[in-house]
Amino acid sequence: MSLAELRRDARFAAGLVARRPFQVLVQVTNRCNATCSFCDFWPNGAHPREELTADDFRKLSAELAKIGTFLISIEGGEPFVRQDLVEIVRAFGEHHVPLLYTNGWFVTEEKVKALFAAGLAQVGVSIDYSEAARHDAKRGLKGGTERAWQAVDLFRKHAPHGNRQVHVMTVLMRDNQNDLEALLKQSAAHDVGHCLTLISTQGYRRGKDSPDGVPDVSLSPQLLSLWKQYPHFRMFRDYLGSVDTFLADRSQLPACQAGTQSFNIDHLGNVSPCIEKIDRRFGNVRDEPLAAILQRMREGGTARGCQDCWTLCRGFNQSLGQGGTLKGWMDLSTRMRSA
């Protein structure tokens, strides 16, 4: 690891200890070539001229750096539809820890090399089923599974730090609740990590017309058993152990920290507490300083008390927010960084 990366990681850790905001989800576009039933972004894509520009993201990165060092989750839509994706990653990579999530369709060797050279810290490729036909159908992309695994292999091939920088991301839902071990075996065969996030069905526009639902069986014991069995299953144990709590009685979960130590910025520049509450806009980064927007949100716009989801971004907040838990720090420094 380079000296610059060590310094960046040290700043990030110091921010956690100081309980500063540390996580932001950024949708760089709502446009997407997939038509996933659990996502409402692709039918609501904006024209490219309406989206934040690379210059906007450079300005945003500098404003964030004044607050602290952030884990930046670069999402869509499908981020690779942006022709300036490398410049966006470069903007965030200068000060922060950029993660990228993609369905893999547009990934090429040239783009992979450029993204890592621009400072990409980690990438997740979406694969939800161990059977190609089922994943292709869910994503509305014939041949999507093959493209996704090809993308996984390209990222793994060119990642400066090997498999610790690449993982498969699975949306856990009722339809694939029995697929996880088979998927873990596949990601192990490709020598990359594996993460999952529980599907959200209660957020803004979520679950209204989707046939997808949350799992209908107890899963936490199985998830924790798989965590022990598969070292490349890079998840916080606190998160996996609380899946059943969410499914059975979500009111028993700790208060959500969205809007305080994490927040969301959409493709148009609107700031909200989280991706599930993107209709609760507290300002736009094109119109005023980010610090002013965050202060307004802290005063009256957090998601505290909300129990609508148990997605992985909330899992990060529960494990690392408010200074973090001992188990969360242990998982961050070991499992989440394993080679």
TrEMBL record:
It holds the Pfam family SPASM. Coiled coil: none annotated. GO terms for molecular function: 4 iron, 4 sulfur cluster binding; catalytic activity; metal ion binding. Gene3D superfamilies: Aldolase class I. Residues 18-237 form the Radical SAM core domain. Keywords: 4Fe-4S, Iron, Iron-sulfur, Metal-binding, S-adenosyl-L-methionine. The keyword 4Fe-4S applies. One of its GO terms (biological process) is heme biosynthetic process. Its cofactor is [4Fe-4S] cluster. InterPro entries: 4Fe4S-binding_SPASM_dom, Aldolase_TIM, Elp3/MiaA/NifB-like_rSAM, PqqE-like, Radical_SAM_PqqE_MftC-like, rSAM, rSAM_sf. PANTHER family: PQQA PEPTIDE CYCLASE, RADICAL SAM DOMAIN PROTEIN. This is Radical SAM domain heme biosynthesis protein.
